Amino acid sequence: MNKPLPIKAPIFLALLLATSPAVAAPKSDLWSFWDKSDESNGGAFEHKAWQQTLDTYLVEKGQHNLFNYSAVSTADREALDQYIETITSKDPRSYSLDEQFAYWVNLYNALTVQLILDEYPVKSISKLGGFLSFGPWDDNVATVAGKSLTLNDIEHRILRPIWNDSRIHYAVNCASLSCPNLATDAFTAANTENLLENAALQFTNSEKGARIEGSTLTLSSIYDWYGSDFGDDEQAILREIDKYRDGKKLEGWSGKIKYEYDWSLNQP
To answer: Which residues form the signal peptide (predicted)?
Structure first.
C-alpha cells in the first residue's frame, strides 16, 4: 500500500488557515501608557501636508471617496513621508485630548496610504503584511514616544478604549471599497465632531453600510466585527444605525440579516 506524501509545513498551515473560522476582530484593550493628556496645552499639531495630499488625490465618486494612488508624484510622496516623520517625532500625550484624537486618526489614515504606496500596485490591503497574515495591521509601522506602534495599536489600544466612541469606526480608513470613506478634510480639534457626524451619516446611508433587498438586510461587516461598540444586541445595533439614516429605519427588522465586506482597493 502506498503511503501518502507528507505535506510540507507552509502548505499545511495555508490549508489549515483556509479551513479555519475567521479570526475574531481585535477587542478594545487600553494601552495605559497613552492614557494621558495636558489640557492646559493650547498647542496644535500641523496637518497641512496631509490636507494637501487629500486635496490632490482623493476623488469623490458616488458613495465612495477613492484615492488615486497611481498618480502620486515623487514630490508628494516625499511630502507625505515627511508629514508622518514630523508628527511621529512629537509626543501626543503632552497635548489636549481633542488634539490627540485628531492626531491619531490622521496618523492612522496617512500610514495606511503610505503602506499602499509602498507596495503599489496591489489589488487589496489584505495582500499586505507578513507570511500568511491577512493585511498589515499587526506590523510595526511607526514609532511614537519611543514606542513601536501597529495600526491595530492605534485603533484598538488607543482610539477605541480612550474615547469610547463608535464613530471611530467611521473615521479610520482601511483603503478598501467597503470601508467608511477617507474624509476629504484632515481631522483637527475644531472640526472633529462635524467630521465624525458627517462620516456616520455618509456610511449609514450608503449601500456599503446598510442595504435592503426584499426580505434581506445586508449590513457592513463592521457591525459584526465590532458590534459591541454599537449596541448590546442586534436590535440595539440597528437602533444606533437608525440615528443617522434618512431612509427606512432598521430597528425591528425581522427578516434575514447578513454581513459583507469588499476588500478591493479604494482606487479610481
So the answer is: 1-24
